[in-house]
C-alpha cells in the first residue's frame, strides 16, 4: 500500500517509517524538518516537507494515499504556550483527516496518547479511578495536550460516521528507545517511589512501531481505540504491592494478568489487533537501572 506517515522524523515516526518499509509498503514520510539533498539509499522512504496546520499542504501530501498514519504533534504540554500546543495538534489532525476523507483514504491510524484520561498534567491533580487503566476508563482532560488528543479521537468518531474511512487510534504509553531507557526509566527501576502518572508503565518504540504496522494493515471497521503499553511495569515490581504502598486505597485494583503488570493494560490491543509486544526494559537495563 501507499502509506503517508506524518511526523516521520520524530522518535516514533522514524521507527514506524522503517517498520512500514520493512513490511513492504511504499512510504511517503512527511515532517516539518527540511529535506536533505543527498542520494537516498535504495528502499528508503520518499520525503516531503509540510506544515500540516496549513490545509493546502495537508491535502498535497495525503492525495493518492491508501493509508495515513498521523504521528505529527507537539508531544506534551509544558514546552510551548497552551494555545500553541492545542492549535498545532488539533488543526494538524483535522486537516490531515479531512484530506483523507475527501480523497477516499481507506484507513487512518491516529496516534493519540495515554494522557487522554487527564491525570498526567492536570491543574487540579487527580488519580485514575482504577488500575490497570484500560480503554473504558473515564476521560477528564484539563491540559492542552490531553484535550487536543481527546478532541482528535472525537474527530475520528465523526469521520467514520460521515465517510467510509476506518480508523484506529493508538494511545501509547511513555515511549522509550535504546538512547533514553537509562535516563528516563533508570530512576524508577532503582526505586519504585519515583512515581509517574502512568503507574510505572512504558512502551518500547519498536513495539509501538509493530502496532502501527498492524493498525495500518488492519481491516477492523469503524473507530477502535487501543492502549499500547508494555505488559510489564518499569522495574518489574509486584504491581499490587507497590500500588497499595504508594497510593493506599485511592486507586481500585482490578484483576492482573501477571504479578509485575503494567499500570496501563494493552490487553485489548493484544486480543483484537493481534499485537504481541516483544521488548522490555530488561533488554536495555540491569536490575539497578543502568544500561547493559
TrEMBL record:
- Chain ranges of the NAD-dependent epimerase/dehydratase domain: 3-218
Question: Coiled-coil annotation: which residues?
Answer: none
Q: Note the Pfam families from the entry.
A: Epimerase
Q: Which InterPro entries match?
A: Epimerase_deHydtase, Lipid_A_modif_metabolic_enz, NAD(P)-bd_dom_sf
Q: Which PANTHER family does its entry note? A: BIFUNCTIONAL POLYMYXIN RESISTANCE PROTEIN ARNA, NAD(P)-BINDING DOMAIN-CONTAINING PROTEIN
Q: What is this protein called?
A: NAD(P)-dependent oxidoreductase
Which organism's genome codes for this protein? Frondihabitans peucedani
